[in-house]
Amino acid sequence: MDKDRIRKQVLEARGNLSQGEVVDKSNSITERLLCCNLYQLARTIMVYLDFRNEVKTDSLIKHALGTGKQVVVPVVNTQDRSMISSLLVNYPEDLTSGSYGILEPAPDKVRPMDPREIDLVIVPGAVFDYQGNRMGYGGGYYDRFLPRLRKDAVALALAYEFQVRQDFAMLMGQYDQPVQYIVTEKRIIQCQNSVL
Ligand SMILES: Nc1ncnc2c1ncn2[C@@H]1O[C@H](COP(=O)(O)OP(=O)(O)O)[C@@H](O)[C@H]1O
Ligand SMILES: [Mg+2]
Fold first, then answer.
1. How far does the centroid of ligand 2 lie from the alpha carbon of residue 161, in Å?
2. Among 6, 175, 176, residue to substitute to test ligand 1 (most atoms within 8 Å of Cβ)
3. Residues 38-68: pLDDT tens digits?
């Protein structure tokens, strides 16, 4: 199977989830994440803003802000497919619909933060394997962003169990960035490439 076929198949399955399933599974995934030391010890956390049927991050963001963490969110530049991390102060007031219809800070609410300040990045994606290899949506945004983190920062994906597939390392290219952990509604997967 090639990359695009797997991606398409999994995204189709995700598209078929009911809103009830998305909410229930997202709640389980979030609860699991909130229990992790990795999350609890993180001072600055980058969180994606979910769209379509991605694992929801609303309660995660509220919890993080409510417990005094710094929360940063991505702002994408579609020209060069780069992202900046922007400090989120008022949630959800500072957000508006941005590129690809994904929420992002309104132009006057963008507060760029150095990616080296980030302790933990919550990564979205289409398909993952047990090694932490990741297929996104084809833009390579996180492939460009993740190398800018501190070496000791952690990339953690939120995904439904059906988004985790058999090893597809052979489909990965030189720029593809893995994640160290995957949290699903059933478990936390510590990926084999993890350096921790
Ligand atoms: N740091 C980079 N510099 C140049 N090109 C990059 C970089 N990171 C990713 N790319 C390119 O962006 C594209 C991303 O494709 P792909 O990895 O399939 O997307 P995704 O990671 O979103 O699934 C690839 O063509 C890849 O070569
Ligand atoms: Mg990639």
1. 20
2. 175
3. 999 999 999 999 999 999 999 999 999 999 9
Return the residue whose CA atom lies nearest to atom 27 of ligand 1. 175
- Which ligand number lies closest to the CA of residue 127? 1
Reported as a single tens digit per residue, the pLDDT across 69-106 is 999 999 999 999 999 999 999 999 999 999 999 999 99
Q: What is the pTM of this model?
A: 0.96
Ligand closest to Cα of 177 equals 2
For the 3-190 domain, the top CATH level (class) is: alpha beta
Q: Where exactly are the structural domains of the chain?
A: 3-190
Is the CB–ligand 1 distance for residue 143 below 6 Å?
Answer: yes
Nearest ligand atom owner, CA of 7: 1
| Ligand 1 atom 18 nearest Cα | 138
**Whether the predicted pLDDT of 195 surpasses 70:** no
DSSP string, the chain: --HHHHHHHHHHHHHT--HHHHHHHHHHHHHHHHT-HHHHH-SEEEE----TTSPP-HHHHHHHHHTT-EEEEEEEETTTTEEEEEE--STTTTEEE-GGG-EEE-GGG--EE-GGG-SEEEE--SEEETT--EE-SSS-HHHHHGGGS-TT-EEEEE--GGGEES--GGG--TTPPP-SEEE-SS-EEE-TT---
